[in-house]
Amino acid sequence: MCSAARPGPVLLGLRDAVIGAGSRCSWETSKVGGRPDCVPGITMQYPHCPRCSDPLIHIVQVYCPLEGSAYHRTINVLACLRPECCGRSDSWKVLRSECLETPLNQEPTAKKMVPVPVTVKDWCPEADDWGMEESWGSSTEGVVQTPAPDSEREVIEQTSRLEALLLEGAEGQGLVSQSTVPEFQPFYISVIEEEDSHSQSNFKHEQELLAEYQRREGVCVEQLPLSSCDGEGAPETYEKSQVQHGDRTFNKFMKRISSCPQQILRYCWNGSPLLLSPLGMESAASMCELCTSPRVFEFQLMPALVNMLKGSGSQEQSVEFGTVLIYTCQRSCWSRTNQTPVEESAFVQADPDQHFFNRY
Q1: CA dist list (Å): 151 to 73, 213, 221
Q2: Helices H / strands E in the chain, number of each
Q3: Are the C-beta atoms of residues 277 and 271 closer than 8 Å to each other?
Q4: What is the DSSP string of 319-353?
Q5: How far is CA 114 from CA 69, 102, 107, 111, 203, in A?
């Protein structure tokens, strides 16, 4: 069962080199800003805000294939620029696109694919490839192939041939837009494991900002409890601390990111998000609208990203948020005949202390 899949390590996305004007990126590139790079065979109609009808602006593209899947996988996140819209979850769009790792013209096989439980790919040895233009590639490790019984073989062959016929000559149109759309200055995303960030936290400026925050709020961040990504371990017990705004969830957030305040993205598929404020009656998770499987947390955008989003050229654009939680189908449901992205879910939390991050 997919629900048994354990979350992997927490990966932190950091700002890397600026993508120069005229540079071409691959859909296998993780980046901030620019325009979405469409997966082969996909037609992506540029989305508009359902509230004001303005074209959305591309925030981030993450290449994130899953272990146990024969598909490449890319997620694009877009948002509305209007201040009255960008703080609302329904003014954000999350588009998941996939394509087969095996070329479509490959001779169909008479074997039945039996996937193992879906877990996040082992990115650790390849983590530094985030933000690089060359392909990461993808493997089918963890996918068990067992010959289908004779009674099933003919049906499987016929199905494979039918899918091949449907896809033969089907070329995706890529990104389709009816008008000029706004863009943020693009830059690559590099990645480190959260554990490694503790040994790379000699950032004088960031530590000065953290000390300033502690003086202003009257709290020692280092004394606040720290929870794990997958929520395991003993229940947390909070020590009494005099925090000016009294928000323990926010201070736990600050504790967790204190070793790497410049992180712009946190990735932990099927893990637990790092919340800025407690969830009330609302629920961030939802059900997949295609297969009705539950959606699971995959990654979140962090407050430090807000001040790094710059308009291209002389354009002045901004999107304000605290953190944006991205939830995707637990099964990552996809058909070989899909030619448009699958829409997933975004949940926006406002930042109770945004000015702390505005100086990065």
Answers
A1: 33, 68, 63
A2: 5, 16
A3: no
A4: ---SEEEEEEETT----TT--SPEEEEEEEE--TT
A5: 10, 16, 19, 9, 47
Strand partners, 144: 114
Q: Is 201 helix (H, G, I), strand (E, B) or coil?
A: coil
Do the Cβ atoms of 112 and 156 come closer than 8 Å? yes
Nearest to 303 by CA among 352, 238, 235: 352
**pTM score of the predicted model:** 0.72
Distance CA 172, CA 44 (A): 8
Among 43, 47, 13, 8, which residue's Cα sits nearest to residue 29?
13
Question: Could you tell me if 329 and 293 are in contact, meaning their C-beta atoms sit under 8 angstroms apart?
Answer: yes
205 secondary structure, DSSP code = H
Q: CB under 8 Å to 250, separation ≥6 — which residues? A: 276, 277, 352, 353
How confident is the model over 207-218, as pLDDT tens digits?
Answer: 666 667 667 766
Distance CA 123, CA 136 (A): 10
Q: What is the DSSP string of 124-135?
A: GGGGGGTT-SS-
In this model, does residue 176 exceed pLDDT 60?
yes
Beta bridge partners of 98: 73
pLDDT band with cut points at 50, 70 and 90 for residue 311: confident
Residues 123 and 196: their CA atoms lie apart, in Å, by: 14
